[in-house]
Amino acid sequence: MTKVEDAENSVNIKGGHQFVMCSGDIANTKSQPKRDTWSNRFDFVISCVGAAVGFGNVWRFPYLCYKNGGGAFLIPYLIAVVTVGFPIKFLEVSLGQFMQQGGIGMWNICPLMKGVAVCTSIFAFLELAYYVVIFAWVLLYLGSTFSDPLPWSNCNNTWNTVNCFAGSSDNGDRITENSTFYNWTYLSDTNITNVTGLNLTLNRIDPSVEFWRHYVLEITDGLDEPGVIVWKLLLCLLAIYIVVYFCTWKGIKWISKIAYVTATAPYVLLTILLIVGAMKEGAVNGIIFYLKPDITKLAKFKVWYAAFSQVMFSYAVGLNMLPALGSYNKFNNNCYSHTIIVAFINSFTSLFSGFVIFTLLGHMAYLQQVPIDEVASSGPGLVFNVYPRALAELPVPQLWCCVFFLMLAFIGIDSAILILEGFACSVMDVYTNLARKREAMLILTCVATFILGLPMITQGGMYVFQLVDYYLFGGILMWLICFMEVIGIGWIYGADRFYDNLELMMGFRINIWVKLCWIVITPMTLLIFLTYQLVTFEPLVYDKMYVYPPWGNALGICLSVMVLMVIPCVMVYSLIKLDSRHGTTMLQRIKYLLRPKLKAHQIPDSWGSKAYTWTDTNRNSL
């Protein structure tokens, strides 16, 4: 009996699922499909570093670390890396490499789960619009660093209010928020008036806060007051998309060369800032405050949630970037060791950024004679308020502020490029005719996400931004997407089968820990934290003061539900449009869509020729 005759005999193996190979591969014996690949293995590693290291490493991890037990926070953080972060990261990279496809095409390994892939593609598309808005803020700050004096260091600007306060009072008394003046003496050229017993309350606002709110954002009073587009941010947004497009249009070989600069420069600039900050008074106190362990915090479940969510955010999972980057590897590349390297660099960057941030915050607290926790904050407040103000206290502040925002710009451009590439790769792998029109497809994507970003750069745009951040990127979607990915491979396709595939691909069998995570530990952990977030859900509040109207929260919930509904909708569509010869009942169709579509070179010899089952090459499994 010939190999083809053997292949035509469908048999069940390893758990009842049948394996499918496209008939176009009958003549394609164990050769890998043609596809653009990295020039060398380091191109892949450096690009993955650029994809994973984002703004969250700088503005989120340091704050979470000090707020949740200091050095003790590293315990749940490292557990999260081992049990969730690395297993999912390796799953996405290895699956992309094994299938030689991006985020959507890789789910030919389990066609029924392609709804998850489409959901992640939409998620990445929205993430690009959201991420570039942050980058626009960074670019505006970067341009402002060339001003003398720095516009956030004084109260002599047109946007400053009467509450702006840039230093201490003339009599040497420190003024804090909602403070009271006593025995103030006012001197003029014409008279001397001694005012005693005056009790005056003033709500002090730092000039860096006013620069952020009144110059950069031009913020209104609420979501129902959108205002007009802030032209400064519009120009920054346009400039960023132009740069991102020209960094992406030539493909991965061009992207990898850019990554050598954009992925490595931030470490040089962070090191410079660390050296400068470490030489200042109060820096040691900042480091102690950052890492001082408080083991009692580990008894709080929210500390563990913070650690696991930070790992998920910073490891860039669920965004189609990692499968796309993995798909450009050669089929036999050792992606296991490379993923370990990238995961280590990612976590190191988060920890290293904390040292950089808290040396300067310690110095700032020393100058103001206040506790460090009064100057520390998270998110945009740290990057755009606190840290620029701290850098403004240094000699030649323009230089150090420029270094800081240039570092953020490198991080931003790298992430934006790779989010765009991950989305484009996913779409072009499914609609191959678009690959011949790559430039047009990238332009269309940039224009569409540019338009989506416009509501977030209006005068009321910060309220829209926070709404999108909370409901789309706040964790629920991410937990669910990654849960579905792990279930798809660990349970539906089968972790044992995928281990066989990995052994065929890399030439060795990895340890059992990752398989154990895919089957039990990771999905259970994701489910626990997903449930926790749903149970503890609270309506959105911005800046601890602005409570979103009910219709605003309803809009946010609708956005997240619409994205999630893509998963069942694609499943139902796939079942309905399936040709009748693949099944007349719903159960038969489900069984057929659970069969992986593998090519000859992807099937281990140990499975035997009967592992092959033929199908229509023109079948569109979406």
Automatic annotation (TrEMBL):
Membrane-spanning parts: 42-59, 71-91, 112-142, 229-247, 267-291, 303-328, 340-361, 397-420, 440-458, 470-493, 513-534, 554-576
Superkingdom of source: Eukaryota
Signal peptide: none
Molecular function GO labels: metal ion binding; symporter activity
A Pfam family reported for this protein in Swiss-Prot or TrEMBL: SNF
Cellular-component GO terms for this entry: plasma membrane
InterPro entries associated with the record: Na/ntran_symport, SNS_sf
Keyword terms of this UniProt record: Disulfide bond, Membrane, Metal-binding, Sodium, Symport, Transmembrane, Transmembrane helix, Transport
Single Gene Ontology BP annotation: sodium ion transmembrane transport
SUPFAM superfamilies for the chain: SNF-like (SSF161070)
S-S bridge residues: 155-164
Subcellular location as annotated: Membrane
The UniProt record lists the keyword Kinase: no
Binding site for Na(+): 50, 52-53, 57, 314, 346, 414-415
Family: Belongs to the sodium:neurotransmitter symporter (SNF) (TC 2.A.22) family.
Protein name per UniProt: Transporter
Species this chain originates from: Patella caerulea (Rayed Mediterranean limpet)
